[in-house]
Sequence to fold (298 residues):
Amino acid sequence: MATAARERLQPIFALLSGTLFGLGLAVSGMIDPAKVLAFLDVAGAWDPTLAFVMLGALCVTTPAFHYVLKRRRPWFADAFALPTKADLEPRLITGAALFGVGWGLAGLCPGPAVTALVTGSAGVTAFFGAMLVGFLLHDRIEARNAMADRPIAPRKST
Amino acid sequence: MSPSFSPASGFLGGVLIGLAAVLLLLANGRIAGVSGIVGGLLSRKPGDIGWRVAFVLGLWLGALVYWAARGALFELELLATPGVMIVAGFLVGYGTRLGSGCTSGHGVCGIARFSPRSMVATVVFMASGIATVYVVRHVI
Fold:
């Protein structure tokens, strides 16, 4: 099959993957912010369920990724789109720390927040809107920094 | 410990999330990180939108399938006020983009690839989340 024809199948498999993901969030109870906050509240009435969700997911992804990534390419794309950065830069730590504060305040991370929009909850919708603003502000700042970092072409002397 | 602790349904849900991540990598060559997938929608790169929208529709479909099977709509319990939800949403959005991922991208996919960045990020956002809840519930 030609590349363009194969890539046309990507949305179908993304829909299937998203459906499994959403079902998993609902089955595990992770769509409920109160349950996530109970996991983070180690000094209170602790609910360790979230650790079992991550364990269940990693039991599948750790061996399966190993085999999938031995392939030359995925089924419907020319190459795997994997993160390329390898260094532990300060922004990774700062970003994760800020994310953790927001996660601890609301009990929502991006997966459950997007999924829970389907409930029509006003609080989740407000959270999601603010999350998009956060995405956009970050991308705007990043684009501006990229402009500033661009080497200035040496001026020709007249 | 909380009486609502549910290790079996938690593990099963986790397996489903893992299968979702494997399918997306095997079929499309993509990492199932929700902040990356949704964040990528905002850059509006031509030809890179369809699969992202399909994934989000799938998330909703999956939740609806669960609710249909249970025969009752799921009750969400929001413990934060609207103002706090907005501040939290902004921090989650900005933080996950700055830190290149969230619970799914770093926690489920990155750790599975033994990425040191993802392991560090997961430890940091877990610690930061735990510290935040501690301050909110036991200090303030």
